[in-house]
Amino acid sequence: MSASHTGEITNFFDMSQPYGKQAVFIVLAFILIAITLSLEAKFYERFASIIYLISLLSLVGLFLFGKNVNGATSWYGIGGMTLQPSEFAKFATALAVAKYISDLETDLTTIKDQVRTMVIILLPAFLILLQNDAGSTLVYGAFFFVLYREGIQQIYLIALATLVGIAVITLKFGILTTVLILVVLGLMVNLYLRKRKPPIIPSIVILLISSLLAVSVSFFYKSILKPHQQDRISLWLRLEKDPDKIQQMKQTILYNLNESEKAISSGGFKGKGYLEGTRTTGKFVPEQHTDYIFSTVGEEWGFLGSSIVVILFVLLIGRVVVLAESQKSQFSRVYGYSVAAIFFIHFLINVGMVMGLIPTVGIPLPFFSYGGSALWGFTILLFIFVKLDSNKINEW
Fold this sequence. Notes:
Layout: H1 18-38, H2 41-46, H3 48-65, E1 67-69, E2 72-78, E3 81-83, H4 86-101, H5 111-130, H6 134-138, H7 143-149, H8 154-173, H9 175-192, H10 200-224, H11 227-236, H12 243-251, H13 255-266, H14 278-281, H15 293-325, H16 330-354, H17 372-390
Antiparallel strand pairs: 1-2, 2-3
Helix pairs in contact: 1-17, 3-4, 3-5, 4-5, 4-16, 4-17, 7-16, 8-9, 8-10, 9-10, 13-15, 15-16, 16-17
């Protein structure tokens, strides 16, 4: 409420204020919880494919009937309110992935089933990306943790880490330096494994592919990303050296981040207290009630309150993982890990973004950020798993 109030609070359900709308969203969320828990656990497994298809249709429909907000066509306008289907597509995709992986004929060690699973994950992600919503698209990377738990080869983890490393080194030091580093590393590995007769041809192929990736990263950064996205990555990796340009960026494209960092640092250890944050009440951070809401926590409750929020998220995610591992059916386990992974990605990116540790990406903090679609999406996502977990005694 402190992130969105504009004066004296006389009615918690004042629909002219964001906090009033959020209060209504919260009340309706309890109704969603009741409905979610009232359905049989088997319902979610039996109709997972249908729920997934409906979510895809809702995403496709945005291209015809969608409402553009801040450059993204991600909402349906319903009266005076909006609905964002990408928030519901997350639990729908989690159900579809769990349904497919738990099928008796699915074997994630085979390329065929790996490709089919990736299609299930990437299809909604691609539709969301076309809506110019990069933040929601990134969330689908969470399913990598699920697939890794269910048995995909470790080589994918190594490949992902390598790709990230190549991207960062290329942007930081350039293509030539990256290629030289790859050559040196390749020679070192060959020398170390010489007695074991290392495969020379595969090593050369890997080197060529890695070099091609370095060139692709540079091209993508310079020719595909928009200027404001380049600026965010540039500041994150400290690529920009001109102090005047940095100061200009902080007053334009990075204004939110700059003010967010100031708000968090001004909170000190204990914070300034509820409704006492000068930067929060002064609306210095434009998106402080949505994507940058953690800056309000930092200013009003300081390091102590922020730490408590972080600990609560860690406990929630950890608890979901523990419960997922205790499931008797693979469907419930996969869905549980999907829930934990989605919450983890949202938490990691949002908090990291607000503190300047991760490039700025529009993504809400679960159960904190303003927005009915996000609140309802997270509520359904979590309480479907609560229902599945409550039914595990019947799965013996």
